[in-house]
């Protein structure tokens, strides 16, 4: 799969190289992935007995990919001799061999903080702690210590209790001792945790084992690698910015409003996004999901969303053939989602992005399901895109690939009217009422009759009678391209 993406996105080769370093095969030479990825040749001569080398701890397992790298397991204590670019030269305390380990796989052990302890998660928020503890492999009794958000220098204990997470403030006395309950202080965090592990009923939350961090995620990048340059727009999920990765690669950055997300759903859904790859779907490049706000980084589409583009001077000059081609590209991407049984729920011209050469790609797949129920509900909410939504989805929230087909019909209407709003002059309420009574949008004067027939197929009241995306792509839309009766 990765080879496929690398091939398709050849122009982003160096970006991919940096995003997915661990895919360097054992026998890889500098040629394919670029010199900056492969750990440098050894040029150190440390004295392993040097007492001054700082002590580090491995945060993740790392398997050496060449003889100049050092394999480490999470929790291993390491002496670090020097930092070389994105690597450190290290030796395990329990071993003799020395080698390179990626710098972001290790953390320095300091005397003041318990950073070498597996239960200590530095710099994460309450929300992030919940997300971690509720994600597999963590389970009932998983716990962690984090820095308190509201009280600098103090800590919080977060414990997973079945499907919930409880948080306890750990306060510091002037003499440095720590307590959860006033009058019951402990000289160290270790002793405090030992007490509550034994006497967990006091806090009604058993401390079974330290939280396991998610596997080192190659999509995860530090937020500092991205620069925001220009705001492109704003949707239900937050703002979208044009930005740069490491000051060189142009990207689009979606800044997610965390408050609107359900933490467990978010983790699951991002996993889905990572697994979807198709040339007609916006490609996810990276995420910054540790800490807030969450950044979702995707490829940048220079001409923005299809709705605005169709309304622009350039868009207005497109021929019917161009419009058909764009409709075909969307059907192509939707066929891929259909094969994967993924329902988009918000298919509309505003969620199609346009790039050079009129390339169209579907955006926001999967994200629609992340919105909290109260925002996405039909009751009294204006957020539901009623004019794009099939009647069974608008009335009973029964979303399916067939309700996406309905939305595709509306998208066709938008395309062939150069971005007109459907049901112009009608309120959402009136639209639902009229549709339920059998009313359908009339054929726009700029729309070939063959295409209008396809729209009507998509708007069949009985969802089962609507075509599939596969059929639309293979037959209906393409047939219109081959046998146009309308001037192209
Ligand atoms: N990858 C991208 N490249 C270029 N522009 C983008 C990209 N992603 C989004 N945009 C721009 O930012 C705008 C806002 O995008 P966003 O996906 O947040 O909201 P939306 O699609 O308008 O609404 P909704 O929240 O209903 O999906 C888009 O309309 C588009 O113009």
UniProtKB/TrEMBL annotation:
GO terms for molecular function: ATP binding; non-membrane spanning protein tyrosine kinase activity. Keywords: ATP-binding, Kinase, Nucleotide-binding, SH2 domain, SH3 domain, Transferase, Tyrosine-protein kinase. One of its GO terms (biological process) is protein deubiquitination. ATP binds at residue 254. Residues 119-211 form the SH2 domain. Residues 51-111 form the SH3 domain. Transmembrane segments: none annotated. SMART domains: SH2 (SM00252), SH3 (SM00326), TyrKc (SM00219). Its EC number is 2.7.10.2. It is an enzyme of class 2 (transferase). GO terms for cellular component: cytoplasm. InterPro entries: Kinase-like_dom_sf, Non-receptor_tyrosine_kinases, Prot_kinase_dom, Protein_kinase_ATP_BS, Ser-Thr/Tyr_kinase_cat_dom, SH2, SH2_dom_sf, SH3-like_dom_sf. Residues 226-488 form the Protein kinase domain. The keyword Transferase applies. It catalyses: L-tyrosyl-[protein] + ATP = O-phospho-L-tyrosyl-[protein] + ADP + H(+). Belongs to the protein kinase superfamily. Tyr protein kinase family. PANTHER family: TYROSINE-PROTEIN KINASE (PTHR24418). This is Tyrosine-protein kinase. It comes from Crocodylus porosus (Saltwater crocodile). The gene is SRMS.
